[in-house]
């Protein structure tokens, strides 16, 4: 199951700009301006790629890079004002997968992130099914199959997309706008208002546990209420 893109950037306006562009491209995004918090997020799992500013106020960005690359698991796109050739070479030697210098085009950054994800997703074997709630809910992303308590769930493509998007980062709240991007693409203007009806249908198929699996966060959106099994 794909995880979130972690954006580590101490400039709040730039951090939000990157978040918006990545979400519009359909990515789940977690942001922070703190290197210490980034290390904590990496330790908890659920991160598929890191967009990392090396010039952080509390922790050296290279320390975050090293934590992400420990075991060679999480790719990193470095985002920094350090534009000297030596700095880029040093970052790449330490394990960065790509290097983007400021100022930059947000669209180019998104394309670079997607290119790195494409390479890394294709590098290994397909991930196995993910389970949630002590094995009760099972999602097989490669097969686009889901089951609850061993019974297959007959989901429409939109319902599958919603469940898969929420399950990518259990507990994280997704706005309706983000879910539109993940399921249909941001070019589908006006689709956002129909998300609630698709969630209602998805919950109905999940039965008595539907509202607990797909939780509503009033005024914000939805989240997966069940934790992913270890």
What structural keywords apply?
alpha/beta; four-stranded antiparallel beta sheet; Arc Repressor Mutant, subunit A; 12 strands; 2 domains; single chain; 230 residues; 41% helix; five-stranded parallel beta sheet; Rossmann fold
What does this protein structure show overall?
With 230 residues, the protein is an alpha/beta fold. The protein folds into two domains: 4-123, Response regulator (Rossmann fold), CATH 3.40.50; 130-224, Winged helix-like DNA-binding domain superfamily/Winged helix DNA-binding domain (Arc Repressor Mutant, subunit A). Helix content is 41%, strand content 20%. It has nine helices and twelve strands. It has helices spanning 12-24, 35-44, 61-69, 85-93, 106-123, 157-168, 176-183, 195-206, 210-213; strands at residues 4-8, 29-32, 47-52, 76-80, 98-101, 130-132, 137-140, 145-148, 151-152, 174-175, 214-217, 221-224. A five-stranded parallel beta sheet has the order 2-1-3-4-5, with helices on both faces. A four-stranded antiparallel beta sheet has the order 6-7-8-9, with no helix packed on it. Helix 1 (12-24) packs across helix 5 and helix 6 crosses helix 8 (195-206). It is elongated.
């Amino acid at each position: 199951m794909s995880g979130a893109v972690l954006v580590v950037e101490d400039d709040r306006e730039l951090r939000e700009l990157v978040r918006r562009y990545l979400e519009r491209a359909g990515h789940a995004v977690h942001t922070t301006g703190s290197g210490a918090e980034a290390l904590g997020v990496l330790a908890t799992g659920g991160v598929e790629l890191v967009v990392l500013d090396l010039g952080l106020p509390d922790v050296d960005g290279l320390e975050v890079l090293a934590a992400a690359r420990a075991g060679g698991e999480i790719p990193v796109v470095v985002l920094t004002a350090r534009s000297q050739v030596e700095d880029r070479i040093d970052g790449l030697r330490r394990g960065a997968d790509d290097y983007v210098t400021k100022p930059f085009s947000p669209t180019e950054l998104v394309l670079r992130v997607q290119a790195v994800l494409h390479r890394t997703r294709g590098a290994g074997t397909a991930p196995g099914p993910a389970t949630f709630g002590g094995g009760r809910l099972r999602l097989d992303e490669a097969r686009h199959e889901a089951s609850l308590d061993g019974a297959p769930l007959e989901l429409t493509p939109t319902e599958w997309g919603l469940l898969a998007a929420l399950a990518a980062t259990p507990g994280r709240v997704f706005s309706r706008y983000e879910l539109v991007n993940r399921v249909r693409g941001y070019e589908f203007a006006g689709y956002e208002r129909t998300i609630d009806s698709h969630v209602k249908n998805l919950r109905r198929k999940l039965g008595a546990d539907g509202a607990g699996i797909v939780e509503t966060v009033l005024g914000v959106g939805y989240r997966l209420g069940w934790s992913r099994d270890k």
